[in-house]
Amino acid sequence: MNEISIIGGGIGGLTLGNILKQQNIDFTLYESAAEIKPVGSGIMMAINAMQIFDKLRLKEKIEQAGNKIHGISITNEKLKLISKTNVLELEKKYNSCNVAIHRADLQKILAENIGYETIQLNHALNKIEKKENYILHFGNGTETESKIVFGADGIHSKVRNQIFGTGTIRNTQQLCWRGLAEFDLPENFHHEAIEAWGKGKRFGFVRMTDRKIYWYAVINKNIHQTENQLAENFYGFHPLILEIMEKTFQENIIFNEIIDLTPIPKWHTNDLCLIGDAAHATTPNLGQGACQSIEDAYIIGKLLENNPNFNEVFENFQKIRRKKVDYVVDTSWKIGQVSQWERGTFLRNFMFRMVPESFNKKLVEKTIRLEM
């Protein structure tokens, strides 16, 4: 029998593992994939996440594997600036900066730090049931008993669906392609994340290492025209954007619809707690999905320092985290709607240009300030 099981070896589950290890708390982490391998695309670790990695003594390793990003710019489709948030002041204040990194590189750093001996690969959860403890049934035919369970198994969480029976997935009606390309970006884009807004479509890109670019393209479902050549949907955008897409191999592109989770009333029950996307999946428009799961893990760790009672910790964890998480989910959804307007884009861009940078900074700081 396990005292503690973490279901899901994504960024939230692995961060929780690192935090429990730092406190000498034993656990086993179950991951459905057969290996932690280089799948997925890029990801931005914002200042809130990097502060937590600093406390885990992983900040420098992550910075070295990725690329520091000092500014975030929204532009029109011709890359003409609409609004810019320069985070240098916030970097100084919090002694951390945004880092763009390949998701697989980040997972590898986190997994190596907790040690592969605590990770059970090829363990996809099929069924979870509550008896005296929790009985976990895995797709590979094994089962185990666990006293405490953390559901870190994403937006389609089996733990949430089977134990709570709650969680409605909301579809934004937006289609998203994420790509990795080998590409020499002009130098002015080396430490900046760019998102170009058009009519019912947008394109974002950021440099992760010397020649590795992570990009994403979002199109409203109702105006998506062509299946075969993604770039054809973006004619009229800056030539650099079309070139990035054209230089990307098909096997390096992942397609998803953009979805989130309607807020659920409770993230915990007796001896069990959901974290990250399993509890509060958000759209990616604030770049905070994984970052919020890292914060979840951090807050659970802080609470466990002073209280060994897991159920009391779970209760306090939701009280502390709820307000911020609801704000992130709601704000991200709204930004996603505005950025995908099909009409009135001139007015939208004008309004966003008028917003003072100090306001944008406040919005960013609200997101990156840790609650404990």
TrEMBL record:
Designated name of the protein: FAD-dependent monooxygenase
Keyword Iron: no
GO MF annotation: an example: monooxygenase activity
Keywords recorded for this protein, A-Z: Monooxygenase, Oxidoreductase
InterPro entries xrefs: FAD-bd (IPR002938), FAD-dep_Monooxygenase_BioMet (IPR050493), FAD/NAD-bd_sf (IPR036188)
Spans through the membrane: none
Gene3D superfamilies for the chain: FAD/NAD(P)-binding domain
